[in-house]
UniProtKB/TrEMBL annotation:
It comes from Trapa natans (Water chestnut). GO terms for cellular component: apoplast. Keywords: Apoplast, Copper, Glycoprotein, Lignin degradation, Metal-binding, Oxidoreductase, Repeat, Secreted, Signal. This is Laccase. Belongs to the multicopper oxidase family. One of its GO terms (biological process) is lignin catabolic process. Residues 34-148, 161-312, 423-553 form the Plastocyanin-like domain.
Length: 595
């Protein structure tokens, strides 16, 4: 069964009915039924969690500035939440979605209506589950058209195509995840990558269902590409065809003409393609960009393929052409070359506003670590510890009542406001050698509190601790941010700022901190509420590479956190075992002085 089809079939169900408001903003309503659906891939039938029986899930299609109400009916076996990735949701974190950060899960049998408020986003974003790893199959594209009467900053394409790239797990992902977390093992690895739900010609039992896209010679198309993969950055290319990247993460970029892209989990890219090649069939292919030490973790070597096929008469028996421009798994140079070309459009119609008077500076190490399994016995690094991740050596632990609820109701004992602005110790972060003591981290539920309108600069510094330096795509909720600097080695606070781009830095919601390097971002904290930020490789998120901002109210109704909707899911006080590392190093002590 071709799972691209249900997406189309459900169009009639999810098509919004519009009610016009002043200022040409529309309200849309969707019903999302989350349930188990049987599918067969890689010659094996299994059950996956879907929305409306569709993998990928239904599209949300709005115009800039609209609002969508999405009623989520949970008919699955586990609690679930949904997140509207890249939608800023001003003053409305109640509908942002990350479990135990802004809400507790929607229990099986229950429903919750999210109010998704669009403001300045334009282009493509996506939605996904934000509980455990359910987002593996519970996700879909969000298409944000320009407001009526306005156009995108490129000629109107003749057509468009949504390409959702995802990971496929042969086994029962939830069962394996829980088992691995309990035993402290490495977390599940995927068995392949999918294009609009299909693995393609290079995977077993997948040729007949390969995803196909028909094009007319001479036409130009807008591709809306979403990386919904759980744990991998991907290279993507289309044989013999040039790609022109024009948008990223719901904002426009200066056109990048290229024969491949690199896209991180969480990122979206809008790409123009002109069908200008001889009539025939061409592979659209994706493969993992791995920066991990292979000896430690290995990676998924599969190639995801779909077929671009021209309409018209030609020899159909010939094999499609494969894109030789698709870089190989470990091609760091190709990764770097593409990433360094991304610039915001930054013109009169699409201006940017990079903060220059910084009021809050943070320097944050992001690391692989070890965590004590049980505080009463922590002698051996090998047997008494499990893998963890951290930011400034704090490995995030979810609270039993979500941070937003605790903040809004002034409940103590659930989080502390002491997320550090600096690492506790300075060391040679990117050295190959590392001190075994430095590798041990501790858990905490520490947040960073920001005043409204504060201008924030964060330098993320990757570390080589545990020999585990990798690219970390960091994602922030509730805000987009500017990438003003990127570099390799240890950050130098005297010379590196001289290279900052304050003219046309990309404005994004997810961006990779390079392996053995650093990344500087800037943003203005103008969205009151609680906002999660974390690595968008779920293995790192699960291990603790997360924290949250609390942005305080700004003094007016418009600049203040709204009250919660009446039907927020209640916290049962029973935290899912699968949520995070079960390691405990005295976290409860740390919480006796809650904010
Ligand atoms: Cu990471």
């Amino acid at each position: 069964m071709n799972f691209a089809v249900p997406l189309f079939l459900f169009w009639s169900v999810i098509i919004p009915f519009g009610r016009q408001l002043p200022a040409l903003a529309y309200i849309h309503h969707y019903d999302f039924v989350v349930k188990e659906t049987n599918v067969t891939k890689l010659c094996v039938e299994k059950s996956i969690l879907t929305v409306n029986d569709s993998f990928p899930g239904p599209e949300i299609r709005v115009r800039k500035g609209d609002t969508a109400y999405v009623n989520v009916h949970n008919q699955g076996h586990y609690g679930i939440t949904l997140h509207w990735h890249g939608v800023k949701q001003p003053s409305n974190p109640w509908s942002d979605g990350p479990e135990y950060i802004t809400q507790c899960p929607i229990e099986p049998g229950a429903n919750f209506t999210y109010q998704v408020i669009f403001t300045d986003e334009e282009g493509t974003l996506w939605w996904h589950a934000h509980s455990d790893w359910t987002r593996a199959t519970v996700h879909g594209a969000i298409i944000i058209l320009p407001k009526e009467g306005t156009t995108a900053p490129y000629p109107e394409p003749d057509g468009e195509e949504v390409i959702v790239l995802a990971a496929w797990y042969k086994g029962d992902l939830m069962t394996e995840l829980i088992q691995d977390i309990v035993t402290g093992s490495d977390l599940p690895h995927s068995s392949g990558y999918t294009t609009n739900g299909e693995l393609g010609d290079f995977s077993n039992c997948s040729s007949e269902t390969i995803y196909r896209w028909s094009v007319d010679y001479g036409s130009t198309y807008l591709l809306r590409i979403v990386n919904a993969v759980v744990n991998a950055e991907l290279f993507f290319a289309i044989a013999n065809h040039t790609l022109t990247v024009v948008g990223m993460d719901g904002a426009y970029v200066k056109p990048i003409v290229t024969d491949y892209i690199l896209i991180s989990p969480g990122q979206t890219m809008n790409v123009l393609l002109t069908a200008d090649q001889p009539l025939g069939r061409y592979y659209m292919a994706a493969r993992q960009y791995s920066t991990e030490p292979i000896a430690d973790t290995g990676f998924d070597h599969s190639n995801a393929t779909a077929i671009l096929e021209y309409n018209g008469d030609y020899n159909l028996s010939a094999s499609p052409t494969f894109p030789h421009s698709l870089p190989l798994y470990l091609d760091m140079k190709a990764g770097k070359n593409f990433t360094h070309r991304i610039r915001s459009l930054a013109n009169e119609d699409h201006p940017i506003s990079v903060p220059t008077n910084i009021s809050t500076r943070m320097f944050i190490t992001i690391s692989m670590n070890l965590l004590c399994k049980n505080i009463t016995s922590c002698n051996s690094l090998d047997t008494d510890h499990m893998i963890a991740t951290s930011m400034n050596n704090v490995s995030w632990k979810n609270p039993q009542v979500d941070v937003l609820e605790a903040y809004y109701r002034n409940l103590s004992g659930y989080y502390t406001s002491d997320f550090p602005d600096w690492p506790a110790t300075m060391f040679n972060f990117t050295a190959d050698y590392y001190d075994e003591d430095a590798v041990v981290t501790h858990t905490g539920t520490k947040v960073k509190v920001l005043n409204y309108n504060e201008s924030v600069e964060i330098v993320f510094q990757g570390t080589g601790l545990l020999g585990g330096s990798v690219n970390h795509p960091m994602h922030m909720h509730g805000h987009s941010f500017y990438i003003v600097g990127i570099g390799y080695g240890n950050f130098d606070n005297e010379t590196d700022p001289l290279s900052y781009n304050l003219v046309d830095p990309p404005e994004v919601n997810t961006f990779g901190v390079p392996k053995d390097g650093w990344l500087t971002i800037r943003f203005v904290a103008k969205n009151p509420g609680v906002w999660f930020w974390h690595c968008h490789l779920d293995r790192h998120m699960t291990w603790g590479m997360d924290t949250a901002f609390i942005v305080k109210d700004g003094g007016t109704e418009e600049t203040s956190l709204r009250p919660p909707p009446p039907n927020m899911p209640q916290c049962t006080g029973v935290i899912g075992v699968s949520v995070q590392n079960p390691g405990d190093d005295g976290r409860d002590d740390a919480l006796t002085n809650s904010s």
